[in-house]
Specification:
Largest sheet: 8 strands, mixed
Low-confidence stretches: none
Strand order of the largest sheet: 4-6-5-10-11-9-7-8
Order of helices and strands: HHEHEHEHEHEEHHEHEHHHEHHEEH
Strand content: 5-15%
Number of strands: 11
Number of helices: 15
Mean pLDDT: 96
Helix content: 25-40%
Length: about 475
């Protein structure tokens, strides 16, 4: 008989709802795996074992009573530690907030609870989600389970390594410049960066441009789609909510629907200059292109512009946004060097510079979108290199070098946060050493369904569930 963590999230939901598996046993199984592997992988910052077991007992009683059950009843999940959770420590990846306990939930936490999931705690994230790797002063570095000497990416690094190593069936994540897609690529997962406004960032929200969005990480397309259905509760408080799906349609249904023949653009163009693409990444890109053609899709080379001054404008916006969260007196000495660097850059800018940078980023987003709209989807690599060694970005202690390496490692992701389009990482390629290399598909605004259908088709054609790390 398979171990419980061999079952997908949807399989777990079915087995729990029919009474064949107890949610108490499922939660205990995953908590035992977290206890065994989390520290070595830098997966969790906080584990809420008592609360999870209590929720599992309640879920079991509801099954026995024959109550109407939500779709993901009793299935474990965890919340990224950049997200407020009432009564549960929320560090934002920072020693400054090592003991902070919010009095409220962010909206998505309630949505996931209403869908029946049981949170096992908070997954590791870098300080305030700023870098594309996960190293901080509140937990060990997040490492990909396929080679724990290498980083799991970021900022959803703890979520990604947890799912890849079988510590969770799927996970909540966020993405402000690639923070779902990058760790999904590095950890061999499906990760969906949702359309702007698809999932509520309330009640507070700290991103006036809507760059940061919430989405799922999972081992299969169907699990990611089911989790997206749970997250996507229409909220009229969003500044620019995405249009809801037509009545009766779901993202999960899209995972079981053939995409039809698609017109897919492909490009290696990026606004980041002098990017060196690893041979393994080029191989993944070419193999994905060949598979698309084999499946009957039209693949067209696409040229994307590099608007003048865009890179500098995006860095200015990112630096100014680092100042949004208020810090208590004396907090600066607890900050990571990169955070200090970004905050200092942000503080040195005039309001005129910030406004002009925001305008440039919005304008560039429209230009990118205009070039991509003729295509059903656009293919790019997700990252430029194989998973990087632990300490690669921070070695030498120079935050400017750190930031430069990050931009060159993930030069295709942040543009899609500018445009507000959905995108998905698909784990199609693996190196001879067993390291995952993902590719990114970008969809039209609001059209996660086409990406999900395409990912499911690729999953059926290529398969990746048999790729499992040694911790499995």
């Amino acid at each position: 008989m398979a171990d419980l963590h061999d079952l997908s999230a949807l399989e777990l939901a079915t087995e729990i709802s029919t009474g064949r598996i107890s949610p108490v046993d499922v939660v205990d199984h995953y908590l035992a795996r977290i206890e065994r592997y989390s520290r070595d992988l830098g997966a969790f910052t906080t584990v809420t074992a008592d609360a999870a077991r209590s929720a599992a007992k309640k879920a079991e009683q509801e099954v026995r009573r024959g109550a109407d059950l939500p779709p993901l009843h009793g299935v474990p999940i965890a919340i990224k530690d950049l997200t407020n959770t009432a009564g549960v420590r929320t560090t934002f990846g920072s020693a400054v907030f090592a003991d902070y306990i919010p009095t409220f939930d962010d909206d998505v936490v309630g949505f996931l609870r209403d869908a029946g999931t049981i949170s096992l705690g908070k997954t590791n994230a870098p300080e305030f989600g700023l870098p594309c790797y996960t190293e901080n002063r509140v937990a060990p570095p997040a490492r990909t389970p396929f080679d724990p000497t290498r980083l799991a990416g970021g900022s959803s690094g703890g979520a990604a390594t947890s799912v890849a190593a079988g510590l969770l069936p799927f996970a909540h994540a966020t993405d402000g410049g690639g923070s779902i897609r990058i760790p999904a690529s590095v950890c061999g997962l499906v990760g969906i960066k949702t359309s702007r406004g698809r999932v509520s960032r309330g009640p507070l929200g700290t991103d006036p441009l809507g760059l940061s969005v919430t989405g799922p990480l999972a081992r299969s397309t169907a699990d990611a789609a089911a989790l997206l259905d749970a997250m996507s509760v229409t909220s009229l408080t969003e500044p620019a909510p995405a249009l809801p799906l037509p009545p009766g349609q779901t993202f999960l249904a899209a995972a079981y629907r053939e995409p039809g023949k698609l017109r897919i653009g492909r490009t290696l163009d990026t606004p980041v200059p002098d990017v060196q693409i690893a041979t393994e990444v080029q191989d993944a890109y070419d193999a994905a292109s060949a598979l698309l053609i084999e499946l009957g899709h039209e693949v067209v080379d696409l040229e994307l512009p590099a608007p003048a001054g865009l890179l500098d404008a995006f860095v200015k916006v990112w630096a100014s946004f680092s100042l949004i969260a208020p810090l208590p007196p004396g907090a600066e000495q607890l900050l990571m060097p990169l955070t200090k660097y970004m905050m200092q850059r942000g503080a040195a800018m005039s309001s005129t510079e910030v406004v002009r940078a925001i305008s440039a980023v919005q304008g560039a987003g429209r230009v990118f979108l205009w070039h991509m709209l003729p295509f059903d989807a656009v293919l790019t690599p997700t990252v430029s290199q194989t998973p990087r060694p632990v300490g690669y970005f921070t070695e030498g202690g120079d935050p400017a070098t750190d930031f430069d390496r990050q931009m060159r490692f993930s030069p295709w992701t942040a543009q899609i946060n500018m445009t507000g389009q959905p995108a998905i990482n698909v784990p199609l390629h693996w190196t001879e050493d067993g390291l995952p290399i993902g590719v990114q598909f970008i969809g039209r605004p609001g059209d996660e369904c086409t990406l999900i259908s395409l990912s499911a088709q690729l999953e059926q054609a290529a398969g990746w569930r048999h790729h499992q790390p040694v911790q499995w």
